Each structure stands twice: as C-alpha cells, then as structure tokens.
Sequence to fold (1085 residues):
Amino acid sequence: MRIVCPFCGERELGEFSYLGDAKPVRPAAGAPEDDVFDYVYLRDNIAGAMSEHWYHAGGCRAWLKITRNTLTHEISSVEPAAGAGAAEVGA
Amino acid sequence: MVSHAQTHRLESGGLIDRSAPLNFRFDGKTFAGFQGDTLASALIANGVKLVGRSFKYHRPRGILTSGSEEPNALVELRTGARREPNTKATTAELYDGLEAASQNCWPSLRHDLMAVNQLFSPIFVAGFYYKTFMWPAKFWEAIYEPAIRRAAGLGRAAGVADPDHYDKAWAHCDVLIAGSGPAGLAAALAAGRSGARVILCEEDFALGGRLLADGGMIDGMPAAEWTSRTLAELATLPDVRIMNRTTLFGVYDGGTYGAIERVNDHLPSPPEHQVRQRLWRIVAKRCVVAAGAIERPIVFAGNDTPGVMMASAMRTYVARYAATPAKRIALFTNNEDGWRTVETALGAGLQIAAVVDARLDVSAAHRALAAKAGFPVLNGSVAGVEGGKDGVRKISISLTGGARAEVEADGLAVSGGWNPAVGLTSYHRGRPKWQDDISAFVPDGAPPGMVAAGAANGAFGLGACLSQGFAAGAAAAQSPGHNGSAGTPPVADDETFSLTRLWHVAGKGKAFVDYQHDVTASDIELAQREGFESVEHLKRYTTLGMATDQGKTSNVAGLAILAAVSGKSIPETGTTIYRPPYVPVAIGAFAGHHRDEDFHATRLTPSHHWAAEQGAVFVDTGLWKRAQWYPRAGEKDWLESVTREVKAVRSGVGFCDVSTLGKIDVHGPDAGAFLDRVYINTFSNLAVGKARYGLMLREDGMVYDDGTTSRLAEDHYFLTTTTAKAGPVMQHLEFCRQVLFPQLDVQLTSVSDQWAQFSIAGPKTRDLLREIVDPAEDLLNEAFPFMGAREVALRGGIKARLFRISFSGEMAFEISVPARYGDALVRNLMLAGKQFGVTPYGTEALGVMRIEKGHVAGPELNGTTTAADLGHGKMMSTKKDFIGCVMAGREALAAADRQVVVGIKPTDKKRRLRSGAHVIPKGEIPGSASSQGYVTSVCFSPTLDQWIGLALVERGRERIGEIVHAHDPLRGEDYDVELCNPVFYDPDGGRQRG
Ligand SMILES: [Zn+2]
Fold:
C-alpha cells in the first residue's frame, strides 16, 4: 500500500502507523459520561470507504485523515489533521 | 571420478554451450552436462529417468515438466548448511560441482522400502488425516504420527544456520512486465520505445519463453533471430531493465509487486560479499502479465510413471537442451499443439511410436506426416502405462469404439491443452472466468493497473501473443504519460487451435491429478461422495493443490473431475482462491539482512563504549542495550555486584546512564495549557526552573505513562517519558496536538537522542558535581532545591541541564549534556569522583532503589492500573479537562476493592521473593477465586538486608500489617508475606531533599 502524504508525497505503508476510525470527535469538557464512553469505545466497522487516522511516523510526523476502502485498500483522499500543518518543515 | 556418458544428448543443436562441460553429482554418482543445462535437462541427457519418490505412496517419479510448475522432480540441492530441500530440478541451473540428492526415499531411490505405503493405499485416501485424527489420541501419538512423519514428507532442511546473505531492494518503474516470451518482449518494445521506464522480470535464466523451444517465424525471421534483435534494441533504450532469474511472485496494494531474484543460485556458492537472493519490492504504475500458460496433464492410470512427460516439456528438452527423454516416443494429445512435439522429435531424428489423439478431426497434414514417418495415429485415449522405475515400456490404449491397442514406447508425451497462468491476475481475490472456446480459465479483470496479454490472457497463437503484448505495452506506457512512438508491432501467424475436452480417462490403477501430494482421481470422487462438493472443501479434504507447486499442473483437472462427478459445469464448480507467492520464496529472502544481531536496530547509550570497557553486563530493553550491572573481580554473582552498587550509592555517590528515557521539548505560548490536558496534574502553574512528576492516562482512564517534566522557560517545557513508551508517547502527544487540540499554539520535538542524561545519586552527589560544574553555580538547597531544574555551565564552558530529581530516594541530580559529550562526561565523572569512591550502577541497582523507595515502574504501569491504584489518586486535578478524566471516574475504576500498590515483605526474613506469586488471604484455599492480586516487583534490599517487593492487592492500602499468603504454583512456592507501606526507605523523604 502507498499513501500520498500531503507534506512528503507518495510514501510506502511501512512509514505510517494506523490508529483507526477518524469519525468520533472528542467531546468537549463537561460532556456527559455517555458521550465520552461512545467516543472512547464505539466504532463503526465499515466494509467500504472509511475515514481513518494515520500517522506519518517515518516521515513528517503529521497525523492524517485518510479515506480508505476497507475492502480494496483503495485510498480516495488524504488530508492533514487540523493541527498537522504546523509540522510542515519550512512551510 | 569418471563421468557417465551423456547417452541421451543429441550430437548437435540446443541452447547449451558444448564448449563449457560441467560435472555434477546426483545421488552420489557423477554425471556430465553443459553450461545452459538445468539439473533436469542434464539428468535427461544422461538417461536418468527416476529422480524422486512421491509424497504419500513413495511411487517412483520422473520429470514431468520443464519449468517452475514441476510437481515431481524435487531434489535436495547442495550439501551441508546450504542443503535446500524441495528444489525443482527443472529450474535449478547446472553448475560445475553441483550436488543433488533425491528425497523422500529410504534406504535409496531405487530400493525405497517406504514404497510399501502403496500397499496401504486404501488408508491413505482423501481425508486420511482428518479420519485418522478421530482415532484414539494415544494411538495417534504413539503409532501413527511418528510413522507417518517418517513415511510421508518432502526433503530435509539443512538443520543449521544458512551461511548466505539475502538482500532486499526497492525498484520503481512505469511499466512492469512479467515474462519474456513473445508477449512480454513485444510489451517491453512498445513501452520502452514510448519512453516509459520498464522493468521486465523473467524467471528463467534465458530470455524468450516458449520461443526458446518452439521457435516460429516473426517479422519474416526465425524466432531466435527476432529475439536477439529485440534484446539488442531493448538494450539501447535507456530505461528498460531486464531482470532474468527473477520471478514476480505477488501483487500488493497500490501497485507494489514482490519479486525474487535468484542472484547467485546458479553458482556453487555466492562470490564473496555477494548475496544469494534478493527480494524486490517493485512499485509500478502499470503491469503487463505475460506469464504464459501451463500445459495440463490428462489424468489416466499410470500417468505418473517416469517417462510420462508433458508434451511441451518433452520438446523443450529436445529443442532447447538437445537432450532426449526417450528414443521412441508416443504422444497422447487432445489438441493440435501436442503435435509440435512430434514435429520436434522427428526433426531431431527420434522415433515416434504412435500418436493417440482424442480428437476425431486430425488434420490431413498431420496424417500425411504420420504416413511419411511411419507411425500410427490412433483415435482414443491412453488407458494405462506399463513400466516402473526404469521408465515407460508399453502403453495401452482404448480406441474410440471400444477396441484396445498396445504400443511399445520408452516415453509418453501428454498434452491436455493449456491453462493461462492466472495467478498474478487473481491475487486480489479475482476469480478467473471460464472461456469455453479454449476450454480454460482466463483472467477476469485484474488488480488495478494490471493487464494480462498473450497466453496468460488465453491468446495462444504466436501472432496474437505479439499483438496483445505490444498493444498492452503501448497502452501501459501511455497511461503514465509517455507519448513516444511505439513503432511497428512485430507480426507472426497464429497456429491452428483445435482441442477436444478430455480430463480423465477411466481405467484400472492409480490415476494422479496432483502428483506432488499424491491425489488421485478416485480421491476426488471419494471426497465428492463424502459431501465435499465445494472446491475449497475439496482442496482441504484431499490436499489437492496444497503442495509447494500450488497445483499449477493439477488444479483445473481436479475441479474438472469434481464437476463431472457432481454433475455441474466447470464454471459452476469454480476455482479456489489464488494466493501469493507464485513460487516458494525462502523465508531468508523475506528476512534479508534482518537476522541474528541485525534482527532489529540496536541503540547504544552515550556511555555504552565506556561501560563496555568496564566489563558491564548489558541487558536488552527494547532496542537499547543498557548496562545492567558492573561486575568487579571476585564477585561471585550479579546479586553481589548489585548489592555493592546500591550500598555505594546509599553511602557515597554513584551514577547511572538514564539517556534511554524519552525526552520531548514542548515549546510555545500554550505549552503549559497543552500539558494540563495530557497530564492528570497541572503544569501551567509550574514555576520556571522547577520540575514536577506527571502522570498521563489513556482516554479510557488507565495510566499510560509517567515521568518528570521541567519548565526551562516561560514557553519551554522539557518532558521525559519511560524508556519503553518514548515512541508511543511522542505519537500520542502529536495526536493530542494535531487532532484533539489544534487550537493550541505548541510545538513538540523529540530530543531523546540529542541529550545524554545521567542520574547522580547519593549523599556525596554535590561533592562530585562541584568537581564537574562551574564553581560559580550554586548547588545548595536555597539556590537549587529539590525539584529544581535549570541550565548550568560545566567547567570548561559546556552548557548542561541539571534536574534535582531522585528516583532512588537519595540526594540526587540528573545531569544532561548534548549527546556528543556523553562519553566525555562519564569519563570525567569517574576521574573527578575517584576521591569520593564514585560507583557506576546499572539498571538492576536502579530497580532495587526504586523498589526500596516504592516508586512504580513498568510492572505496575501495566495498562490496567489507575492513578489511584498506583497511589497517585490525589494528583488527579478536578479543575480541568484532561485525557482520561471522564472515564477515570467510572464506578468500577473508583471502586474501593480495586487492587492497589502495596509493599510486601516475607515473614521469614531469609526467604527470597519472586514476582508473579498470587496474594491469597490467610486460611483460604489458593485458586483464581481466592486470589486478591499478585506480586509485581521484587528485589533483595541491601538496605533492609532482606527481600522486599511491591504487589497489587485488593484494598491493599487498608490492610497494612496484615499477613497474607503468597502462592506461586508455577514455581511450587508457598509462603507468608506481610503487607506494608510501599515506601521502605526514608518514607518522609528527608534524604532526597537534604
Ligand atoms: Zn509526511
């Protein structure tokens, strides 16, 4: 598998580490425990296009939001996490 | 050493180099061959027909094919540490001095006592293993398994370490081509001329594919001439790389391909400093699979007799190697292509005994050829073979209409048609589709970017191979944007295609489908009767296609027979799933250089070389090598050394390299706010010049990591992690920064490798530091109190950081200098500390002192403990949001009966403790129900002169003073321990603040 990092270009899978579902959003401070529980534990297990968090550990250390088809491994989009731009060297 | 004469070598012809004679040994006998031979062709040239015994029945077997699909002719190649079992004689290149041995036979190939297995063949039927497993276990273990293991099986592994090196490499191209036959070469021409970067992989050492044996006319010239002209043109193209001896074995996501290059397999051993094989990962925008087709056998009784050979292989040995598998050849074919073997054999002056053709419509030209050469053309099927280990003697034929005939021959060529090599195109769970007009499965789609051409795509004619290959190569080059002219495509005529379906000839005797796993037609019929109708079930039940050849010659015939007995069509029956690798790949090649001490990277601490000079004993912690203790002359064991080190620290001064801790610089105006969110305690209110112990949770409320973090400037914190979690914490913090809290203005930099850090501990720490640190720096309590942290100048001007933190409970500082000064610092500490008796200590003494002081570490930070479990519940801020704060408040995580950290000491002061023992209340029967926790860390405490430990025990902190039972079923130990305060040493902390 190959991933086109928005900062580093096309790179091999081995440079990246996988976290998982990028859909859950961390509840704001003071959110009910149930919301936090869902955020921590509940994940969809999608057969198809799925938004995922990946980390370019062997490259620019950017956290990426990647849309990957879990059936074919086809990657349809790669975008940096909101705060990843700051990792861009010299940008 | 007299070589046997090459009795079966033609006087002339072939692609062998007769000026380069080679000697080789097979089963101890010496033979001769030529450069350009394979082991198989050289054996054939020497009249050797019997090369192995079959897997289950130990039947004599010969050479069936001339390529990597070979199921029979497997040998142990080379000797000693380089002995390699299950090597295909058909692909092993001959070299001078080659040694090979037949396998799977005892005591010898010709007199194999295990052939008695044939007599027991009724019990070796399909599903044999499954049926046998149902017998009483004792019977199986004592009798059957050992007997079967001895009787069945393939070659022997070398049993010692592989002396050779293997390499791994990457390559990138626009167009990757599998195969150098007419389709592959045409594809390379078109793509290369267009300007694309091309890599062509060919598993053979010679280029040309079927052209090497079958010839033909291309562009009005003989195929050999066209091939050499084409190769010459490709050599002039700047970006065309041709890799022979290289098999493309797998297709992975994103256009990544696996290939194995047999760099030096054709030599007795690799030249010095060269690798044996190289594993390639090739990234290609497009791939043209021109891997050709595999001729398929027809299943009939005795079809495994040595001397029965695929028709295409027979003519390959004659035409390419000038080696004659037989002198009087019979052909059994159901298609036009088989007749080429007759033409080749006649051209070489060999005799044709008869042609048995299942088709009614044999062409007039062929009939005329038969009449001229004087052999009969019989319409019907071969029903049996008479012969044995010395080869074929007689063939019995059932003629269409019912009559029988017999023909004497010493070789039988068989052609059941051709199966396109659909492996590569099917590796992404693709299912090939049945193409009725050629009676074969062809690719139905392929992984993205891949296309099949030529015989691999079901186009068997030479003209079609060239035109499909050329078109595929040109199209593949266009997609990556190479618009050069592909020029004129090569042209040739297509041969006539004519085939009548014939899979299996009914008859008496064993008719083999899968030669390598000894699966017969009746096994398949039995499996179907027993209900294994799905091909996937059939495969597992009969083991059809599960040998090292993956059923390349057998799968289609097997499912055709299954289809016939189950009354379904072949497409309805379908194929099993295709999986890489296409050919066996040595594990050594996947490992490459990552073996032995290079299995993983090794990280050395800044003081490593100095420690090694001191004779330190090192321990692997993750990738690091850390000094575990420093033995001194006369010390009888590790405990004596460690005890001395601890005492030296507690009474004087010692130091330890702690550079392995993860170190992260946190910069920015929001650095404090950021740390408040990742730690349970507050850091934004930490004064500049101070350090604080911090605890991180996972979002689920469990403790993740701990360490001290110092504030070096208003907007600069220096954070440390445990050694084990250095990488994961960095990743976690980047996630928090980039994904969870992008609004915070903060930067993270890993500086683990930038700083050499030493802990200096003991009452004489300041005395030692004064010798190192610039005299202007005030190290007294007032100016540098406990938990102080700031930059200082060392004597000589180097800047260092000093942190007044203590893991040992002693007066201690941690000093860090740029990593390049680490070695100099440790040597200076030794010099300057000599007067104070300075003692270097290792991780063992470090561990002893942390247990004495009751500090938690890895065994307690085990992923299931909360801050409160570790005794740090009060650190958890209630005034802020932080990672894990909500989940940590869950009822079960705050329950009163949780297992919490507590100290333990044995009631018998002399007793040794061991971690892992269960803690059981006194008077209860030990068991999982009565277990209330376990011992996590133990050590011999030189300070208390007894063994002490830490344990996780239910309500442990409320039970200080209680005597409980330690139960260690693993070591068979039972003893009493007292639960106590985990801080064994200096509980009020006066020493570290002193
Ligand atoms: Zn990157």
The mean pLDDT of chain A is 90.
